[in-house]
Write a structure and sequence with these properties.
The protein is of the alpha/beta class and 458 residues long. The protein has ten helices and 16 strands.
Length: 458
């Protein structure tokens, strides 16, 4: 018996024979609503930038956000706090028993300092979490408003450090960029490498909500380390996953994608792009394949669930077939899948447009987005197409002459990542208010409304 409900659908279940074409496979992952006591506590470490540029309202908001986390910890949860400027230090050691008043006083005493040793802060947070046993749900939330300018300053080296933290210690890193001066490409890459969140925050008052959502997501994990392994059966020339999931090539026919952790009651859709080679028909006009179609790919879904006895590994195997047909009139289209493909296509167009604008080609950037908008107009209306259009319209506004492109670019990187993920999980704070239709939204807990209420039971 499987824990998750996973559904596979092709956008074109039947295609014209002897013709090469792209086919998309939408995989819908659904986890059950899990109620009652969690089988295992979690560990959360906040790594907070206290460099000179954080002085004033930003640092005040960061401290308020950290207090929000402490108030929402549950019995048995581990918490630690690291601060960094040009040096990193542990302000609250990782522990599952806390004198809350002492922790709050430590947070209140955080003051601004010098430069930004981001890698040093992350490494110290990693060291705190690495002492926990394997399989222990853990997350590091990194908040910064600046660039790498002290310690390890090469972005590729920092990305390798963070990716190794996941591989060796099971550590997922979420990143929160604040203001207009941080490196959004780096923070998004760190989050993508580990399946963590990436948040863009321009307003200090959004920080507590982001911190709370990251902790809530960690406390709600029911599936860990989900991987999708895809192997071509012969008629697929190229396999790729639309979106920003880490890819591993196992051999010339097989790739694996890491989709990370899933929370209770989550529904997420991932889309695989398959370049299908011409599938021949026999001399009598019949398909050379079996009556139910030709094998395209073998797909394996692997994930772990958390039980009182430890981690349990689940493996599902699926065979995906497509039916080659002789007449164009026999081609079949799955209209439930097309909108998901369109949303991913819009997301990819946003990435191409931002790259063109970065290279100084503003007109080309706008043309890329407009072409994608024109393509959406040819498709049947749906909520997902409205989402895609909203994403593209926001990108056009960010690309307008005279617009604050630096700020708009950060907003679009964050917004694009959440729209392309295709997850219902409530793990984003979008200051634009432009939520995609597939995301669930939960009311903010009363404990988050006032920072002064420190006596609320976690």
């Amino acid at each position: 018996m499987t824990f998750m409900k996973n559904t596979l659908q092709l956008d074109y279940p039947a295609i014209l024979a002897n013709t090469a074409r792209p086919v998309h496979l939408a995989i819908t992952f659904e986890t059950p609503e899990v109620t009652g006591a969690r089988p295992q506590p979690v560990a959360f470490v906040a790594v907070v930038d206290r460099s000179g540029s954080m002085q004033g309202e930003p640092l005040t908001a960061a401290k308020r956000a950290t207090r929000t986390v402490v108030r929402n910890l549950r019995k048995g949860d581990y918490f630690g706090l690291v601060v960094f400027d040009d040096q990193a230090r542990t302000l609250v050691p990782l522990a599952d028993t806390r004198d809350e008043m002492t922790v709050m006083k430590s947070i209140d005493q955080i003051g601004s300092g010098g430069s930004t040793n981001l890698a040093g802060g992350w490494a110290l947070g990693r060291d705190l979490l690495s002492a926990l046993p394997a399989g222990f749900p853990r997350k590091l939330l990194l908040l910064t408003d600046g660039e790498l300018n002290v310690g390890v300053v090469e972005p590729e080296l920092v990305k390798k450090m963070v990716a190794m933290g996941l591989e060796k210690n099971g550590l997922r890193t979420s990143c929160l960029g604040f203001g207009d001066n941080y490196n959004e490409d780096l923070l998004e890459a760190l989050a993508n490498a580990t399946g963590g969140g990436f948040h863009n925050a321009r307003k200090p008052d959004s920080l507590p909500e982001i911190f709370r959502k990251e902790l809530d997501g960690l406390q709600s994990i029911v599936v860990q380390n989900l991987r999708v392994r895809v192997r071509s059966c012969g008629f697929v020339d190229r396999i790729s996953m639309m979106g920003e999931y880490p890819e591993l090539t196992l051999d010339e026919k097989t790739k694996e994608y890491a989709l990370g952790d899933f929370v209770s009651g989550e529904r997420r859709v991932a889309v695989l792009a398959l370049d299908v080679l011409p599938i021949p028909l026999g001399a009598d006009g019949r398909a050379t394949a079996t009556w139910d179609g030709e094998d395209l790919v073998m797909l394996e879904i692997r994930y772990d669930t958390i039980t009182p006895g430890g981690l349990v590994t689940h493996v599902e195997a699926h065979r995906v077939k497509v039916l080659p047909v002789q007449s164009a009139g026999d081609v079949q289209v799955n209209t439930d899948v097309l909108p998901w493909v369109s949303l991913q296509s819009a997301s990819a167009a946003v990435e191409r447009a931002l790259r063109a604008r970065d290279e100084g080609n503003a007109e080309q950037a706008r043309a890329i987005v407009q072409k994608e908008i024109d393509g959406l107009a040819t498709l049947p209306a749906s909520d997902l197409l409205v989402d895609a259009r909203r994403l593209l319209d926001s990108t056009l506004r960010a690309l307008e002459d005279g617009a604050d492109y630096n700020s708009g670019r950060k907003m679009m990187r964050s917004m694009n990542r959440y729209f392309s993920k295709g997850s219902s999980a409530d793990d984003a704070v979008l200051e634009t208010g432009q939520w995609p239709s597939f995301k669930s939204q939960k009311p903010k807990p009363a404990s988050d409304q006032a920072d002064q209420d420190r006596n609320v039971e976690p």
